[in-house]
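Async update (no meeting this week)

Hi team, since we skipped the sync, here's where things stand on the single-chain job. The sequence we agreed to prioritize is pasted below, unchanged from the tracker. I ran it this morning and attached the output directly underneath so nobody has to dig for it. Comments welcome in thread, and please keep replies under the output.
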Amino acid sequence: MVWELIKLDLRKVLTGYITFVLVLSAYLLFRQRPLESTDTIVIAAGVLQGLYLAWRIFRDPGSTQSFIFSRPFSRNRLFWNRWGLGITLQMVTLLIVLILVASGARSFIHKSNLPYYPMVQWYELSVLWPLAIFSLAAFQIQMFLMLRARTLQTASLPKWRKVATYAIVCFIALAFLGGFRVVASAVSHGATAPAHLGNAVLFYVLTLTVLTTLTSLHCYRHIEIEA
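Output:
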């Protein structure tokens, strides 16, 4: 990864990301009930994190786009640099949540007034599952839709082909989003979910990640940059 590019993208995303992590950490630390894989706030936080990271990292406001693409880096390198940053920040979030729970910080806050601490401390790590799944899926979908839209805006295509392509993209997005129902079903079962359901969720997320990454890379290679 190129550190100069990392610093450029971090400037766009860091303020919102730090704010998000602080708010999420405060919620996880002071929530009065044990953390569960069905926590809707954590699920929503995962979705918002993924959407925000993709939107900020792959967005080039003003004239920065022509500047960035004029640098002596291949488009492949630019894409993987940004994709890697998004994945890394999501992993940092998971690491922070892991530390908050596994270190006993949350248990220390609540053990004096809630009877099920510290017994449920390790059970609460199940909250990592929905946070990771929903954040990754949202990041991949947002990245794909943004880059696909940019290629359509600059492509020299007849109007009817652009409309048809947008319709296909929307259909694919709805299909991807429909997969959230499978994920939500698995999350709602928590640790008692059948093995085949967990495997289906894993297969869906892996397939989604591979397909959206490859198609986004293809779009990135074909974006036309205005001088």
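Quick observations from my side:
The two ends are 26 Å apart (CA to CA).
The mean pLDDT is 80.
Reply here if anything looks off.
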